[in-house]
Amino acid sequence: MSTTEQQKLSTSALAKLLDIPLQQLFATLRDCGWIRKVEDGWVLTAKGEFEGGEYVHSRRYGRYIVWPDIIVEHQLLRGIESNRMLSATQLARKYQITAREVRRVLGEIGLLQRDFSGWRLTRAGEQVGGVIIESDAGDAEISWPESLLENSLVAEQFEYMQRLYVEAEQPEADLLTAITELRALDGHSFHSRSEWLVCHWLYLAGVAHACNRRLPLVQETPEHHADFWLPQAQVYIEVSGDEHDAGAIAATMERLDLYRKQQWHYIEVRAEHLAHLDEYLTRALRELGVDVF
């Protein structure tokens, strides 16, 4: 069958079909001499053209490379599948969490480190096979060998995050029936499941926080204590919706009213936010000028 009769696949479509990160595919095709990097993207080499690569011109995407669909049978690509690398997005899909949370978990166990520009690979991350692969757009993504999931510590951390999502959707009464105290990853203890989940999130997101923080410069009786205080961001967080008595509900409402009167920045986390806590808190903090990776 001639190449003109075959279905053509873009490099991104080919990566999706092989279920490998696009960056890994570009790097492999480059290392094997099928493509090379130029200032404005990737171009075919004579070897790449011999393997069936050709250009397509699109008004929307410009010029890009396509491959015949039978290329998936090539020995080179079969070799990639047997040494598949996983992106943060693929790990997230496996554990039903977000790619952002994948990076936070890997950071918590020392395989990644957060800096002013985002995440970087640590020496420990390199030792377990993490690699930085450049994409067609010139940016880079850290990918991981499938064997990473055979590491019991890594697997346990991801499974723990997965359980948090399940617990976030459980009724408060069901979770606390046999539990009198909930201990977060950073050592803080709670009787509120909602506060416990928020504390987990703040810790993994690298946000410094205090719990049950007395409100300053407020002459009130009784004293008011915020659920969470973020000193660097100058933001209070109030967790509402799981109070067990009228007094606790009234105290929460008083604090929210106080934040408004004092014009203090605050975020209210309600029960309906727990199932998508990462999305909600990330957006809320960014709106207040706080960098969250």
Descriptive notes:
α6 crosses α8. β4 and β5 form a beta hairpin. The protein has three domains: 80 residues, no CATH class; 72 residues, no CATH class; 116 residues, VSR Endonuclease (Endonuclease, Chain A, 3-Layer(aba) Sandwich). The strands form six sheets. A four-stranded mixed sheet has the order 13-14-15-16, sandwiched between helices. Helices cover 40% and strands 23% of the residues. It is built from twelve helices and 16 strands. About 2% of the residues have low confidence. It is elongated. The chain has 293 residues and is of the alpha+beta class. The protein starts with 7 loop residues before the first strand and ends in a 6-residue tail after the last helix.
The CATH superfamily of the largest domain is VSR Endonuclease
Major pleated sheet: 4 strands, mixed
Briefly, what CATH class of the largest domain? Alpha Beta
Number of helices: 12
The radius of gyration computed from the alpha-carbon positions, rounded to a whole number of angstroms, is 25 Å
Number of strands: 16
Derived from helix and strand composition plus strand pairing, the structural class reads: alpha+beta
Report, as a whole number of angstroms, the end-to-end distance. 48 Å
Could you tell me the strand content as a percent range? 15-25%
Shape: elongated
For the record, the count of structural domains works out to 3
**H/E topology pattern:** EHHEEHEEHEHHEEHEEHHEEHEEEHEH
What would you say the CATH architecture of the largest domain is? 3-Layer(aba) Sandwich
The order of strands across the largest sheet is 13-14-15-16
The CATH topology of the largest domain is given as: Endonuclease, Chain A
